[in-house]
Amino acid sequence: MNTQTTNKFLAIFKSRKFWACFLAVLAAVGSCLYGEITVWQMLQAIVAAAAAYATGVAIEDAGSNISGTRLS
Questions:
Q1: What whole-number distance in Å separates Cα of residue 57 and Cα of residue 45?
Q2: Which among 20, 44, 45, 53 could disulfide-bond with 28, CB atoms 3.0 to 4.6 Å apart, if both were Cys?
Q3: Residue 26, class by beta-carbon neighbours within 10 Å (0-12 exposed, 13-18 middle, 19+ buried)?
Q4: Cα Rg for the chain, rounded, in angstroms?
Q5: How many domains does the chain fold into?
Q6: pTM attached to this predicted model
C-alpha cells in the first residue's frame, strides 16, 4: 500500500462522519440482536446510515471544490 492510500485510510478513521455512521450501524445491529427491531428494519437503518454518510462526504467534496481548498 502506498503512502497516499494509507493517508486516505487514516483520514477516514479520523472522520466524525465515519464514526457516526459506524455507531448507527452498530446500534442497528445491536437492536436487532436484542429483538427490538426486525432484520428488515435493521437493513433499512444500515442503508439510511450509509446514505447519510455518502451524502455528507459528497457535500464536503463539493464544498472543497467550490472554495478551492481541501477540507479535512
A1: 18
A2: 45
A3: exposed
A4: 15
A5: 1
A6: 0.78
CA–CA gap between residue 43 and residue 28 (Å, rounded): 8
Q: What is the pLDDT of residue 6?
A: 79
**Measured CA distances, 22 to 1, 14, 63 (Å):** 24, 12, 23
Q: Is 49 inside a domain boundary?
A: yes
Rounded CA-CA distance 46/35 in Å is: 16
Q: What's the grid cell of residue 6?
A: 494509507
Give the chain's length: 72
Which residue from 11, 7, 31 is spatially nearest to 23, judged by alpha carbons?
31
Average pLDDT over residues 29-42: 98
For residues 66 and 72, give the distance between their C-alpha atoms in angstroms, rounded to a whole number.
Answer: 15
DSSP code at position 34? T
